Amino acid sequence: MDRLSSLNEVVTASAPAKIILFGEHFVVYGQSAVVLAIDKRAYVSAKLRTDRQTYVNSTDLGVSGFFNGEGFQPERGSYTARTSLEPIQRAAHHVLEEAGKRVGIDLEVHSSIPVASGLGSSAAVTSATVLAVSHLLNVELSQEEIFNFTLKSERLIHGTPSGIDPAISTYGGTLLFHKDRGVSPLKVDTDIPLVVGNTNVARSTGELVAAVRQRLNNFPSIIGPIIESGGRVALEAVEALKKGDLSTVGELMNINQSLLNGLGVSHETLERLISAARTSGAYGAKLTGGGGGGCMIALAKTETLKHIATAIERAGGTIFIAKKEDHGVRIEL
Ligand code: PMV
């Protein structure tokens, strides 16, 4: 039945943050990566407007504004607000096009995911937007379609995204991801006890991805094999994860970190937190996401997690203990 929701109806969807356990950056060049959804979510509420504008308000970023065709009118924040809000508007726009509807929409974004820190905040917001708007317009989208619309919108953030962030925010769980072969859910029975340490150093994934491409162009015979090794580390880690062999997983995380160092995407604050985690007994520690600041993760025995978290905190990180999350993007009732 082709109908629109009433003007009073509010539809809220949410999607999870993510941790890349293995393979960030290498994944952009067609290597496999291991990623898991964690228990922090972004929430997007959608409501019809009486005009044709798209209004986006992100409380956490402190920015809001109106999109009208190609035009943008900031409400809070300056015109730079457009950069943060446009992927959200684009996501809504893709669904409107799919539905063949020309209506205005209000979008309210709330998120407990730290931004610009490698935890997939933008993809979580974008996929939640796609689902909330599709429900508002009574358009049935498959998970694959939600993933594709999210990926299309993410292209605004950096030109060559692998799709790993849209995939995990859409599907949730623990995934083996390959940009051409897509996702395979991984059945990992063991707990993956992780501490996340945020350096609070903001960085841009797009710039880091571009810097890696430059290094690959400058030194193809050196960087090429590093990238291939990164893929092999991820595949080896899958076997260790399936066996519940966390000590090997930790060792592979340390190798992964060394390879990322070779790409030039670590940062002195990340190194400090990683070193604190390792010396206090973690199985392994590495940056997660784009690097250059942002977050690191440490894998440890459950009973030592708090001790390791304290060490990371003393080294200057903001910490939290991450739990695996099975649910990808979903409607909140
Ligand atoms: O920094 P984040 O959370 O956006 O992670 C990006 C992961 C990269 O591999 C660096 C980029 C990509 O598109 O896969």
What do these coordinates show?
With 333 residues, this protein is of the alpha+beta class. It contains nine helices and 13 strands. Strands 1, 2, 3, 4, 5, 6, 7, 8 and 13 form a nine-stranded mixed β-sheet that branches. α3 runs antiparallel to α4 and α8 packs antiparallel against α9. The longest helix has 24 residues. The mean pLDDT is 95. The site of (3R)-3-hydroxy-3-methyl-5-(phosphonooxy)pentanoic acid (PMV) has 14 residues, from α4 and α5.
Helical residue percent?
A: 25-40%
Count of DSSP H/I helices = 9
List low-confidence stretches: none
Provide the residue-averaged pLDDT.
Answer: 95
| Pattern of helices and strands | EEEEEHEHHHEEEHHHHEEHEE
Bound compounds, each kind once, are: (3R)-3-hydroxy-3-methyl-5-(phosphonooxy)pentanoic acid
Q: Helix- and strand-based class?
A: alpha+beta
Strand content: 25-35%
Compute the number of strand runs. 13
The gyration radius over C-alpha positions equals: 20 Å
Task: Give the overall shape, derived from the CA principal axes.
Answer: globular
Largest sheet: 9 strands, mixed
Distance between the termini: 22 Å
